[in-house]
Design goal:
golgi apparatus; 1294 residues; EC 7.6.2.1; alpha+beta; magnesium ion binding; nucleotide-binding; membrane; ten-stranded mixed beta sheet; 40 strands
């Protein structure tokens, strides 16, 4: 039996079987605890036999098991208490050469003496390899954890006196030798573990793992042959961003159009009209308007697509030099394919994704600009591999033999995994630093040679050219719902009319034989239903969709050309990337904002630093600063100060650019890095030279060169960045800078001198609104570094899980850090941010700030930007566990519920750790309720996915319209989750702007975008939709009234073509005028008085109640418009040409009165009259009269409209017509005028009052003050029952 467990007096004893074959074992974690005795906690390796000893199968099983355990650790396990090997020196034994298992087994079985307060802290794979969230508290690993080694901590158990005396004597004699021996053993354990980890990576390369359904084959990677035929055919480099071509336009366009239910409905009507003797309106009265609307949309699509084709052709026809058969040939971009070796010259775009081989600069360096990819104008450095850097002429390039293995095409801009395998040479890892992406431009480098790896639509640029998620406005959703209701009413009217026709026909067919109504069709209910279905179909406006599209498109142009939202410094106007959400901007209830770069400028300035328990500030010159004086005077902390400044000037990826006047400009990937390097320069440590091998600094006049061995780059998961350098003295050092949460947990237990003082200084910096970073250093033993380098190299050339393996290997070396101090950088607020936030709060909008910064920094910024007022209470949730978070949330929810107000004047501040617990399923509802009760919410230390979760939680639960605004790639998730996404085209690039619905250059422009354009567009779209339904119901319900007099026969009252042209010609212009030029107040007034935003925010202009009021109003108008002319023509009249009045004359009179009435109705609801509004309303009326004059004389010149011949003379020569032309519209609109008069006097709204003051050219401030006083009085009455305990600041800390 390989392992025996014996229970004796409450203890668990493990007997290790040393003779078990190592080939049949694999490691798992076991935690052993001794009960009823002093605390003993052991996590050690247990050996288990495997079912099979086949090496290949066993390795596969081991890796699969390890992967599952590591994946579980990533999501569920806290970090180990200690992460360093050096603490092994606390275990003092004689058998220092024994293996780990032997030492642990011996200590448990009594072979090794157990000391008081001793512990074994071995670098477990779980803690050192980054499998654990670094933000979670330090807690012991559970028995289910997987680990390569463990933690043994024990107090002194009962021991034999002799053993104790022997151990004490030995310690006194050999204490120094023991320390040296243990240090050596720590190094041996480190190197042993690194070799073990490297072996795992080698196994992964030899046999890729199979986890679950994942099967790694050659299909999972791309193989590119250098200077030879490719193993498979790859796509060419031709791109096409157009939607259509000559062959696909008609089917694709029709498919897109008939995905809309309204177009399908009208197509159905048009098809039904083709059935003989069914359609009362003719065969083409619906088809022609439908074709016209589709034609307008088609012309719009063609114009846009032609522009795309022209742009594509311009790009595809660009030329580049390609190496063919030992010579350079000029070819088009479209002719390139994977494996081609090309030459790119300065200020030229890269035609495809390339691997950099060599360049005109030393060590195959080159500089690129990626503004087209991410918006960043800073130059970035790329460097080819040393093995290809010497390929500088054509002969060398043609002799390059080997292959490139890389990942399949994907859309990850900042990630790439590949391996270069030249014949007869070792494999070389390829990463993102060797990739030149299509869309980037070569800068400051005369030329480069590169090999194409991805071409055409497989390039990363084209992979990212996907459309944003489809969003629909609230108004659209409500409109569709009401259309369905109208459709149900239409069906009901059809059934009712069909049944009435059936009953009337059955009653009159025996007696009124001359009508010829005894045939099958007249008595068929089905035929009658189809007839009335066609007759009433226009209750749903056919032109509504195309009108909305055009109006929204023009509204978007108004936003784009608003000079008040143009930022001159960056030459960046506002941009509406979608027009479907224009009216949604007028319904915003919640705003979720990033902080850095959104509320602040993201222009960093180095302000302070903390070194060796002291705070230093920058001065005008380095010599004036106290920090430099301490260095020159050789203060006791001078060594730490020098190392601190060296770290600032070396630990970065900044590229210096020397100008002719001697000045140095720093090109950095982030403003933080630039500020830190500039801060070192202000203290006299000037970074001025970078090559791939080394960096040089001028340290107070002394030149120092540091050989850069490795750069461990910053990621959002790591939250830190490190470089490993060889100092001028030949030592190997690790320089690290990062968030305090990740730096502090990696500090060596022996180097904690500045821990508490620095932590206090960090809180002080954060309270001033400064951004903070911690700086630390570690000395690396050459032997350990040598082993780690091999492990890191194996991770860097792995094609499977390279990112996680690199993160693991980085965690291995970033341990035992010595804290040097911290930095404080100022990020000032953007112009107009406090005023904008104050205005948005007055408008009734709730503002949440979601940031990754420290809690104190976020609170301070909240005060600075007026998000938090001095009268506002602050409730802080900063808990360390799920239970504590639940207790705090439930307690505060109970307190708020016991008060009389639901909208407390409280700011809730919560950190990312507590938010993780608060968003769990069982607590989400209560936390959401607490948040919605608060006026302001600030979430600190949150990840991008947490931002999206918070936005989605509020959007789904409240059903309110939400807006998310940010400027960086970490804000894309929440921007796409919100109802409306706003991207700021700022310093962090255009990732957020490209993923947004609208983009602006500064946060202050959000005020105008929401309060002006949002409120205006909501009012315009609302009135447009309501008016469109009103005018259709007003006309087409008259057919129902006429059916009462036509025996429910389906006979139409109007001429068939006038029915079809009603929406697309005679009443088409008033909706456009309303949708484009309507505004209830001027822009200055809207910005001055944010309370005017509330009517649109509360959806008072368009809701179910308002919609059906308009429908009822249209029904009432149709009654007046039909029966008043009918009563006027009860007595028959005879004209001079012998014609008598018939139904068509009545129909044209009614049609005229309908057009006049609906046009006047448009004027009645218009608040802002322009000359275009006048032209639309009066021009539509005039257009109808011109149509009557022309259409009456078409027949017999053309063979249609015979029943309309001479209609103008009949209609216009009748005094009754002119009398009714004045009487009928006035009578119809009289009720509307009276209701409007009562509303504007008795039930006057704040908006009406302000508009009256504008019309009278008076200052509306007095009206606004009265309204504000009324609101304050109402709010104070609501708060009388509020508990006194809720008026104080509540803080809950772990």
């Amino acid at each position: 039996m390989p392992m025996h467990k014996q229970l004796h007096q409450g203890k668990v004893i493990v007997v290790h079987a040393p003779n078990l074959p190592a080939s049949c074992k694999h490691r798992q974690s076991l935690e052993l605890q001794a009960k009823n005795s002093p605390s003993i906690s052991v996590e050690l390796s247990r050996t288990n036999t495997t079912a099979s000893c086949n090496p290949s199968q066993r390795r596969r099983q081991q890796r699969s098991s390890l992967h599952r355990q590591e994946s579980w650790f990533r999501h569920s396990m806290p970090p180990a208490i200690n992460r360093d090997f050096e603490s092994l020196e606390h275990l003092q034994t004689q058998e220092t050469s024994n293996g780990l298992d032997e030492q642990l087994a011996a200590s448990l079985s009594g072979k090794l003496p157990v000391l008081s307060h001793t512990s074994i802290h071995l670098n477990s794979a779980n803690s050192n390899l980054g499998f654990i969230d670094s933000d979670t508290p330090n807690t012991p690993i559970t028995p289910q954890s997987s680990s390569l080694a463990g933690t043994l901590s024990s107090c002194q158990p009962p021991a034999e006196p002799g053993g104790s005396r022997h151990r004490s004597s030995r310690n006194r004699k050999d204490s120094r030798a023991s320390i040296l021996s243990n240090a050596a053993r720590g190094i041996r354990m480190t190197t042993s573990f690194l070799r073990r980890k490297r072996k795992e990576y080698e196994d992964d390369d030899e046999e890729p793992p199979n986890f679950g359904s994942y099967d790694s084959t050659d299909d999972d990677k791309r193989i590119i042959t250098l200077n030879g035929p490719q193993p498979t055919k790859y796509c060419n480099n031709r791109i096409s961003t157009a939607k259509y071509n000559v062959l696909t336009f008609i089917p694709s366009f029709l498919f897109e159009q008939f995905r809309r239910y309204s177009n399908i409905f009208f197509l159905l009507i048009a098809l039904l009209q083709q059935i003989p003797d069914v359609s009362p309106t003719g065969r083409y009265t619906t088809l022609v308007p439908l074709v016209f609307i589709l034609s307008v949309s088609a012309i719009k699509e063609i114009i846009e697509d032609v522009k795309r084709h022209r742009a594509d052709n311009e790009i595809n026809h660009r030329v580049i030099e390609r190496l063919e058969n030992g010579t350079w040939t000029t070819v088009r971009w479209s002719e390139l394919t994977v494996g081609d070796i090309i030459k790119v010259v300065i200020d030229t775009f890269f035609p495809a994704d390339l691997i950099l081989l060599s360049s005109s600069e030393p060590q195959a360096m080159c500089f690129i600009e990626t503004a087209n990819l991410d918006g960043e104008t800073n130059l970035k450095i790329r460097q080819g591999m040393p093995s290809t850097a010497k390929l500088l002429d054509t002969k060398d390039l043609t002799q390059l033999q080997g292959r490139i293995e890389c990942e399949l095409p994907n859309r990850l801009l900042y990630e790439f995994n590949g391996v270069l395998k030249e014949f007869g040479k070792p494999a070389v890892p390829l990463g993102n630093d060797q990739v030149l992406q299509r869309g980037a431009m070569l800068r400051n480098t005369p030329w480069i040679f590169g090999v194409v790896i991805y071409s055409g639509h497989e390039t990363k640029l084209m992979k990212n050219s996907t459309s944003a998620p489809l969003k629909r406005s609230t108004v659209d959703k409500l409109t569709n719902t009401q259309i369905l209701m109208l459709f149900m009413i239409l069906i009901s009217l059809c059934i009712t009319s069909g049944l009435c026709n059936l009953f009337w026909t059955q009653k009159h067919s025996p007696t009124d034989w001359y009508l010829g109504i005894g045939d099958f069709k007249s008595l068929s209910l089905g035929y009658n239903l189809l007839t009335f279905f066609i007759l009433y179909n226009n209750l749903i406006p056919i032109s509504l969709q195309v009108t909305l599209e055009l109006v929204r498109f023009l509204q978007a142009i108004f936003i784009n050309y608003d000079i008040e939202m143009y930022h001159a410094e960056s030459n960046m106007p506002a941009s509406a990337r979608t027009s479907n959400l224009n009216e949604e901007l007028g319904l915003i209830k919640y705003i979720f904002s990033d902080k850095t770069g959104t509320l602040t400028r993201n222009v960093m300035e180095f302000k302070k630093c903390s070194i060796a328990k002291r705070i230093y500030q920058t001065e005008r010159t380095p010599e004036e600063s106290e920090l430099v004086q301490n260095i020159l005077r050789r203060h006791e902390s001078s060594r730490d100060i020098e190392e601190f400044l060296v770290l600032l000037s070396v630990c970065h990826t900044v590229i210096p650019e020397k100008k002719e006047d001697g000045t140095i400009i720093y090109h950095a990937a982030s403003p933080d890095e630039r500020a830190l390097v500039d801060g070192a320069r202000r203290f006299g440590y000037i970074f001025d030279t970078r090559t791939p091998e080394y960096v040089e600094i001028n340290a107070l006049g002394k030149r120092m060169r540091f050989e850069v061995l490795n750069v461990l780059e910053f990621t959002s998961q790591r939250k830190r960045m490190s470089v490993i350098v060889r100092t001028p003295e030949g030592k190997i050092k690790l320089f690290t800078k990062g968030a305090d949460s990740v730096i502090y947990e990696r500090l060596s237990p022996r180097d904690q001198a500045y821990r508490e003082a620095t932590l206090q200084h960090l809180e002080e910096f954060a309270s001033e609104g400064l951004r903070t970073l911690c700086l630390a250093v570690a000395d690396i033993d050459p032997e350990v570094y040598e082993e780690w380098t091999h492990t890191h190299h194996k991770a860097s050339i792995a094609l499977q899980y390279r990112e996680s393996k690199l993160e693991d290997s980085s965690n291995l070396i970033e341990t035992n850090l010595r804290l040097l101090g911290a930095t404080a950088i100022e990020d000032k607020l953007q112009d107009g941010v406090p005023e904008t936030i104050d205005a948005l709060l007055q408008a009734g909008i709730y503002i949440w700030v979601l940031t990754g910064d420290k809690q104190e920094t976020a609170i301070n910024i909240g005060y600075s930007c007026k998000l938090i007022s001095n009268t506002m209470d602050i409730l802080i949730l900063n808990e360390g566990s799920l239970d504590a978070t639940r207790d705090a949330v439930l307690r505060h929810v109970g307190e708020f519920k016991s008060s009389s107000t639901k909208d407390a004047n409280v700011a809730l501040v919560i950190d990312g750790k507590s938010l993780k617990y608060a968003l769990t399923c069982d607590l989400r509802g209560d936390f959401q309720e607490l948040c919605l009760m608060c006026r302001v919410v600030i979430c600190c230390r949150v990840s991008p996915i947490q931002k999206a979760e918070v936005v989605d939680m509020v959007t789904q639960s409240t059903k309110a319209v939400t807006l998310a605004i940010g400027d960086g790639a970490n804000d894309v998730a929440m921007i796409q989750k919100a109802s409306v996404g706003i991207g700021i085209s700022g310093v962090e690039g255009l990732q957020a702007a490209c993923a947004s619905d609208y983009s602006i250059a500064q946060f202050r422009f959000l005020r105008r975008l929401i309060l002006v354009h949002g409120a205006w567009n909501y009012a315009r779209i609302s009135k447009l939709i309501l008016y469109s339904f009103y005018k259709n119901v007003c006309l087409y319900v008259i057919e129902l009234w006429f059916a009462l007099y036509s025996g429910w026969s389906g006979q139409i009252l109007f001429e068939r073509w006038t029915i079809g042209l009603y929406n697309v010609v005679f009443t088409a212009m008033p909706p456009f005028a309303i949708g484009l030029f309507e505004k209830f107040c001027t822009a200055d007034t809207m910005l001055r008085y944010p309370l005017l935003y509330k009517p649109s925010q509360n959806a008072k202009l368009f809701n179910v109640r308002v919609f059906w009021i308009w429908i009822f109003n249209a029904l009432l108008h149709s009654v007046f418009l039909f029966w008043l002319p009918l009563f006027a023509f009860e007595s028959e009249s005879i004209w001079s040409d012998g014609k008598t009045s018939d139904y068509l004359l009545l129909g044209n009179m009614v049609y005229t009165y309908v057009i006049v009435t609906v046009c006047l109705k448009a004027g009645l609801i218009t608040s802002s009259w322009t000359w275009l509004t006048h032209a639309a309303i009066w021009g539509s009326i005039l257009l109808w009269f011109l149509f009557v004059l022309i259409y009456s004389h078409i027949w017999p010149s053309l063979s249609f409209a015979s029943n309309f011949a001479g209609m103008d003379s009949q209609l216009l020569s009748t005094p009754v017509f002119w009398f009714a032309l004045v009487l009928v519209p006035i009578a119809s609109l009289l009720i509307d005028v009276i209701c409007k008069l009562i509303h504007n006097t008795v039930f006057k709204t704040l908006t009406d009052a302000v508009r009256e003051q504008e019309i009278q050219r008076n200052d509306p401030s007095q009206v606004m003050e009265e309204s504000r006083s009324s609101m304050i009085w109402t709010r104070d009455r609501a708060r009388k029952g509020r508990r006194p305990g809720c008026e104080i600041t509540i803080q809950d800390r772990a």
